[in-house]
Amino acid sequence: MTSGDTPQTVPFASAAASSGAPFVEEPVAYDALLLSSFGGPEGQDDVIPFLRNVTRGRGIPDERLEEVAVHYRHFGGISPINQHNRELLEALRAELQRRGVDLPVYWGNRNWEPYIEDTVAQAAADGHRTLLAIATSAYSSYSSDRQYREDFARALLTTGLGEGDDPVTIDKVRLFFDHPGFVEPFYEGVRAAVEGFLAEGTAPEAVRVLFSTHSIPMGDAAKSGPGDREWPAGGAYAAQHSAVAAHIMDRLAREVPAAGAVGWDLVYQSRSGPPSQPWLEPDVNDRIAELPAEGIRAVAITPLGFVSDHMEVMWDLDNEAMASAEEAGLAAVRTQTPGTHPAFVVGLIDLVEERLNGTPAAERPHLTELGPWYDVSRAGDCENARLGFRPAAAGLLP
Questions:
Q1: 20 Cβ partners below 8 Å, 6+ apart?
Q2: What dihedral do alpha carbons 275, 279, 284, 286 form, nearest 10°?
Q3: Quick check: helix, strand or coil at residue 125?
Q4: DSSP annotation of 80
Q5: What is the pTM of this model?
Q6: Which of 110, 212, 219, 277 allows an S-S link to 273, with CB 3.0 to 4.6 Å?
Q7: Which residues of 217-243 are buried (b: 16+ CB within 10 A; e: fewer)?
Q8: In the chain, what are the domains?
Q9: Strand 130-135's sheet: what is its strand order?
């Protein structure tokens, strides 16, 4: 990608990223990595306090939060996301050791322990000043990109570590929606599911792949991605998902010719807003209900928007969507997420080494025409339609 932006100062950034150029093409001596995620409860007593954190500032009463809490209570009040992050943390450390890269990796969450503020404070106490963050989210939107950058800024502001003569800085690796390491596990899952259906005698035109991701409000979707370019309906968020899904299906048709007639849709899940507020559609369950009338007999449900099998995958897909498929009389498979797949782990450390080495943008791997995405977020990128702009690291103002 290219940008005509005039370089500007980037707050809380390393010296190399502070000019505001879209890509940092000079080596940066980072001294620690920061794995940043959403967080989740670890027991029944944690569920409501966790949901209060998630919805802070919205004035949602506990009675309404309890309606969502049932998903967590079904699994003993334990979100799988924390364990997935512990496993990813160890896998990243092992890959760094394998490559001989001496960088400690810290882990901090937005909504539950370990909190990002505490993690940044610990990294600073350990003597680290130049941090590079990896967020467990691949796409452009407020909650999946800018809010993480706001988390970093908040941590530096509330601790005071972003000020003074020797401030802590936090950069962020580029969004990795079309990086080969992220896409490979999804492709493997789709291919296995489709080949399984075909081997059972299902005609390819009777098979459909549903690429599912978290729905977001249309207002936020429209503001996802850089504000200086035109996006179709759904903004950069929908465009990125569609581009990756199209790549997967094009590759499948090349490598499994019998699958050339298999169709696909981008669908959405986990809507949480009021009925009066428009969110991205179609809902995965609504789309499943329509498929039998279109001659579809088998469906592969692919959680394209998710890094691991956390609550939205286990409840909304493994529970609700699979039940919808059964009700519709469809054979159904839910395909894998990246998790700690070796290609994904290797890919994340490849992204780290891009920044350590200052790899030129022209040499960075990407699988769609939208990439490689920016190192430094562009002005106005992923504004919150309700709250506007708040301080954020790793990007141009505002």
A1: 5, 6, 7, 8, 9, 10, 376, 396
A2: 40
A3: helix
A4: T
A5: 0.96
A6: 277
A7: bbbbbbbbbbeeeebeebbbbbbbbbb
A8: 32-176+341-363 (3.40.50.1400), 180-334 (3.40.50.1400)
A9: 105-109, 32-37, 130-135, 169-172
